[in-house]
Amino acid sequence: GGAGGGGALATPAASESDxxxxxxxxxxxxxxxxRSRRDEESPQTIADPDDSFIIRVSxxxxxxxxxxxxxxxxxxxxxxxxxRLMHEGKPVxxxxxxxxWPALHRWPDLRYLLRLAGPRTVPVEIGALYTDDAWGQxxxxxxxxxxxxxxxxxxxxxxxxxxxxxxxxxxLAADLYTPDYCCLGNGNLLQTNAWLGPRGTVSPLHHDPNxxxxxxxxxxxxxxxxxxxxxxALYPHxxxxxxxxxxxxxxxxxxxxxxxxxxxxFLECVLLPGEMLFIPPKWxxxxxxxxxxxxxxxxxx
Length: 301
Fold this sequence. Notes:
Oligomer: single chain
Shape: globular
C-alpha cells in the first residue's frame, strides 16, 4: 500500500484539448480508394467540420502521482504472471494488452457512437453522486445524452454508468474483446459494463465483491484505492443499501467527523487509453473522470 494521508485530491490544471485536424480525400479514383480503406480502418473519420466531437487528452493537464502512492504497472503480463498478481491481491495497471481493440481508434470521435447507436435509448444517472438525495435516472437517446451532457457541461451532471451497453448494441461489442485474464479464477464473466460521461463525473469511494478489470478507452480517469483492512478508517455507510460505500466525501473530507480517514494508506493512479486497472474484490476505490471518458469494466469470479 501507499503512505498514509487521506487529504484533498489532486486535480488537473486544465481540461483536455478537444482539437484535431480533419483530412479530406481527392475526387480521383485513387483518392477515393484511399479514403475507403481509411474509413474501414478508422470508422470515426466522418466529414464534419466540428472537431469538438474528437476527444483528446493532454498529459500536461493530468495530476502528478507521487511514487509512494503509485499503483504498480506491468506490461502485457502472461497469464501465469497475472495469476500471481491476482493471488497477491493488490491493484495493478496492465499496459499494452488491449492495443488491438478497434475501440481505441474509433470511440474517441463521438460521431462514431452517434452514427452507430445515436437513436438507442439508454439510462442516464442524473446528479453528482448516487449517494445524494437528488440523484435519479432518466431514459434518453444516446444522441441526446452525448449532446446535452457529454459535450456540454450543464448544471446537472449526467453519467451513463454501469450499463450493459454491449448487450444492447452488439455492434459496439465488436470493437472490443474480453481480456484473456478473465479466464482465471473460476473464469465466470459476470458483467461487462459501459461508463461514459463528461469531465468531472465521480463514483464515490466504494467496493465491489468481484474481480474487476477497468479498461480505459477514451479520455483519462483518476482513481484512488484503499485496501479492505482499512474499512474502519473509511466509515462504511450505515444504510444497508449503501453498505459498500464510504461516508467520506474524498473531494472535501470532514476530518472532524471522520478522524481516522486522514491516516488511511492509499494507492492512486491516472488511467489512460489502452490501460486496464485490476481491482481485487473488496478493495475500496474512488473514480473521477479527468476528461470526457469512456471506460469498460469486466467483472468476473
